[in-house]
Amino acid sequence: MQVEIRKADLQDLDALKIIEDTCFPEAEAATLESLSERLQLFPESFLVVEVEGVLVGFVNGAVIDEPIIRDAHYHDAALHNPDGAYQSVFGLDVSPNHRRQGIAEKLLTALIDAARQAGRKGLTLCCKEEKIPYYEKFGLVNSGKSSSTHGNAVWYDMILHFEEKRIEKMDLKIILASQSPRRSELLSLSTKDFAVQVADIDEKAIEERILAEAGQEKFLDTATELVETLAREKASVIHHENREAMVIGSDTVVVLDEKILGKPVDEADAYAMLRALAGKTHSVLTGVSILWGEKEETFASETKVSFFDWDDRMEAEVKAYVASGKPMDKAGAYGIQEEAALWVSGIEGDYNTIVGFPVALVDKAIHRLLTEAQTEK
């Protein structure tokens, strides 16, 4: 059996659509327009396989900045970032007459090899529960149920981190200077081997000082300085007592109308914040500071979030949300991964910045520091 794997081209489009429709139900299958757009935007990660000259399968996926595929990635191929950290897999399709012949394995292995050669950090995909054991054979790890509702199906996130072993080989101790379970969950996508230590700093005093010292710069620049300073101070406290460890500090604030919304002080404050966010667009800023020996990586990520207008239904939902106590430990009084997702009309930027930890940027920063250390040896 003569098997050839090559990059797809637009002449393959009709054959690709036929195979796609045999592999997925209508609600999950990519449209002809979507396949065409993918072919044009990321042909380097759109591979087809021919058996005896006949096209019988393909694999495709955008390159993205985070190790989790969001529904937006499926719907908007323009979110492909040629310099992104993770190769995604939107679909691994083989025609019914050519299954159980190792063709899917050849396709996925070819895409994994191409992603490694391109310097990606890993490969990510979503699959249904019964397919988890198959993808585990390639080294992908089940990260639990996905937030994706693509095709109204239940999906599981599967991730292969190409460089995860680099940390293990250096016997590196990593400490997350945050008690946030959300940050721990996201950092675990980059490395499973880390400890958590909570840093005790006077956040309010730091905020008051930075706001008082602010000059004529834009308010968003001042807010960015604030989250970076808070992240650095948290990391510094833990790093002072753990000089050999790599310490990661992080902090998140919400900025609305040149006002910083931190964690609410009580239920009334939480309600007032959410009422103020309705019908407007605000910025979520998450600062990160990584300290390791004499090395430092400190940065901030911004994502813009728009809320729907206030109405009676939203008011009832906000009151119930506030009564649940969930907003009390979150900047801006909401977690986008919770009921607040019902009020979001759109986002611009990294979803995980809103959750409180831009893990793709963190992963890149960690490995930049590791690469520098290895180069210096």
Automatic annotation (TrEMBL):
Keywords: Acyltransferase, Cytoplasm, Hydrolase, Nucleotide metabolism, Transferase. One of its GO terms (molecular function) is UTP diphosphatase activity. It is an enzyme of class 3 (hydrolase). GO terms for biological process: nucleotide metabolic process. The active site is at residue 251. It comes from the Bacteria. It catalyses: UTP + H2O = UMP + diphosphate + H(+); dTTP + H2O = dTMP + diphosphate + H(+). Residues 3-161 form the N-acetyltransferase domain. Its EC number is 3.6.1.9. One of its GO terms (cellular component) is cytoplasm. Its cofactor is a divalent metal cation. The record marks 182, 252, 337 as: Important for substrate specificity. It is found in: Cytoplasm. Pfam families: Acetyltransf_1, Maf. Nucleoside triphosphate pyrophosphatase that hydrolyzes dTTP and UTP. May have a dual role in cell division arrest and in preventing the incorporation of modified nucleotides into cellular nucleic acids. HAMAP family: Maf. NCBIfam families: maf. Belongs to the Maf family. YhdE subfamily. This is dTTP/UTP pyrophosphatase. It comes from Trichococcus pasteurii.
